[in-house]
Amino acid sequence: MAAAPRSCRPWGSLPGLLALVSAATATWDLTSLRCNFGSFCECDFRPDLAGLECDLAQHLAGQHLAKALVLKSLKAFVQDPAPNKPLVLSLHGLSGTGKSYVSSLLAKYLFRGGLRSPHVHHFSPIIHFSHPNHIERYKKDLKSWVQGNLTACGRSLFLFDEMDKLPLGLMEVLRPFLGASWVVYGTNYRKAIFIFISNTGGEQINQVALEAWHSRRDREEIELQELEPIISRAVLDNPHHGFWHSGIMEEHLLDAVVPFLPLQRHHVRHCVLNELAHLGLEPQDEVVQAVLDSTTFFPEEEQLFSSNGCKTVASRIALFL
Fold it and tell me: At CB < 8 A and 24+ separation, what contacts does 221-229 make?
């Protein structure tokens, strides 16, 4: 693959972005046009799908649907030299089930710089959109930020965390970027990837998993068709979710709704062993058992699922070493 042109660089920080966009669009050169409308500019996009598949298989516990959906969607998208729309994935499940971990792996295995790549953009409502009364400014800045970075590099990844906490109305500015059109505001955006992460739908996913357990069904028998409609309904009925009245779900702009199932005791054990290996330590039965004993499981009667998945495994291990 040819080296990325020097013009493939990200825009600066949100403050002052509008001036940068104005200056850039006024001084486009041939290289910029090639980045926008051709296939010349891949920036530091270096997909390693085999590596991603291996990492998911080894380290993502209990998520057969998420593994299959993410890999299938990515392979189809990356192997298409001229996709007709961006890849748009929405990740759903309760805390600690692997949503943020998967999004970090996508950055790691798609971009040479991983999460530090200048073409990977991570948005948090607490950090970037913390004042709901500033919504109009946020909408203007977000639109310009996405447009500006796609002008600089069509191969960009946008991660939106905690969709349940975004200011109402913010996501509607993204709708033009997510559909099947050639250009938006003069920018080719069809090779971009958008990932949305939320807890919405987690309770409904848990209920399906619990019913499967009561029915003595293996959790790997749970299919997407059982979960996708109830997750979509949970999002559409949640006025606190970022997609509320945005048109994104109503216009079917998501390529996949990715469910993350609740984790059982043996999945948490798997996470503990992975973390010990990451620390360069041999498996220690007493540490594994101590972490499991300190983990809260639900429902109260069945004690089946970890209340926070594997989210606190690393910090708990530190307590028992």
Answer: 222/65, 222/261, 223/65, 224/65, 224/69, 224/257, 224/259, 227/65, 227/201, 227/257, 227/259, 228/257, 228/259
Q: Which segments of the chain are extended strands (E)?
A: 87-92, 120-123, 157-160, 193-198, 256-259, 297-298, 305-306
Question: Which amino acid makes up residue 179?
Answer: G
Which residue type sits at 153? C
Beta strand 305-306 with 297-298 is: antiparallel
Contact criterion met (CB below 8 Å) for 181 and 150: no
- Whether residue 300 contacts residue 255, with contact meaning beta carbons closer than 8 Å, is answered with no
Beta bridge partner(s), residue 257 = 90
Residue-wise pLDDT tens digits, 207-223: 999 999 999 999 999 99
Give tens-digit pLDDT for 169-204: 999 999 999 988 756 665 678 999 999 999 999 999
